[in-house]
Amino acid sequence: MVVEFTTPAGVVRAVDGMSYDVYGGETLSVVGETGSGKSVSVLAALGLLQTANLRRVSGEVMLAGVDLLTLPEAELRRRLGRDVAMIFQDAISALNPVQRVGDQIAEGLRVHDRGLTADAARERVVELLEMVGVPHPRARYDQYPHQFSGGMCQRVMIAMAIANRPKVLIADEPTTALDVSVQAQILDVLRLAREETGAGVVLITHDLGVVAETADQVAVTYGGRIVESGDVISIFTRPRHPYTAALMRSLPRLDSTAERLLPIPGQPPDLTEIPQGCAFAPRCPTARGRSVCIQTRPELRADDASTGASACHFPDEAAARPRMGDGAQPLSSDPAEPVATPAGAGEAAPESAVPVLEVRDAVSRFPVRSGVFARATAWVHAVDGVSLRIPAGGTLGLVGESGCGKTTLARLVLRLVDPTGGQILVEGD
Fold first, then answer.
1. What is the pTM of this model?
2. Residue 257: what pLDDT?
3. CA distance 14 to 353
4. Residue 87: inside a domain
């Protein structure tokens, strides 16, 4: 596939000959830095790129023997949601803010099954919400997206995507902006969705931890091209492209302390100027002093030493470099030497000082309404008796899982939400 855009700086080739296959029941993870063409490739494949500066989309997108790029718009619409579905990375923005969550899912069901009654669609939606782990699914059917946390909105998007049991499920950064525990839950839901539908999953991400947890196959992208592909174990244990190896060396480790990671030097390539040779050559230690890397672009080809493929003139040297976690450098050779901290870090203000902001026993509750008369059938205790003090010049870190009340507390402080109880004092007033 090739995708090009027209910009004031010139023609940008965002996707440059990208190809991959996905099989039923398998998860392919497409991984790479921001701007490497991951999301653009799937948006173009589904006909979802509607920008005025789109210059060219070429190639083939074969689904069950049919090229999606050649379908009339009406036929493509019939297939979207039925044969292939997408989970977008910003679930809150992707959902319609003025339509009830349950109705949004039911709409997709009834579009593809004209004989489905409203009551039957509602029951199916309740089943889907329960399947993806939304609590009180029958009551929450009638709620709006702003009444859901980020993690819950992502669950709704997954329910919407799997409603018609598609053959291919595309997840574009499904765990972005979610805390680690909720990320794990969402990945479990995705795994369940794949098992329930038998769909092939394309997982687009820049999070290598997510890749290691969920993927069967991996395609590493750089500069609009796939530079390495293979099974997840081979990619993580013996990368055959210097860019993949550099990504692995930049991963932090949890089993050691006080280590300095090795970032990838330089910047991603300017896609308005397609390089003659390897796009990674200016940042690649293997390419130093080698004219072939600058003058000749390597093609993606199968490796004799692995089951995957790489686009590198010297894959054996990339494989010989330190792998995941081996690149971190200790900050000090003496394990007993303390790590320096910024001056003043962790210093507490005197207890007698008047705090800039003080919250006393803040409470915020929201009703869960259902029925014809929208009566409150339950209450969400979003904030329940929270107190805190922030001194002048101080910083308070508010940490917790998605849906535990962090954002609601901030809205209470700004009076964007009226508190149910408690006090909010600024400089004592």
1. 0.76
2. 59
3. 56
4. yes
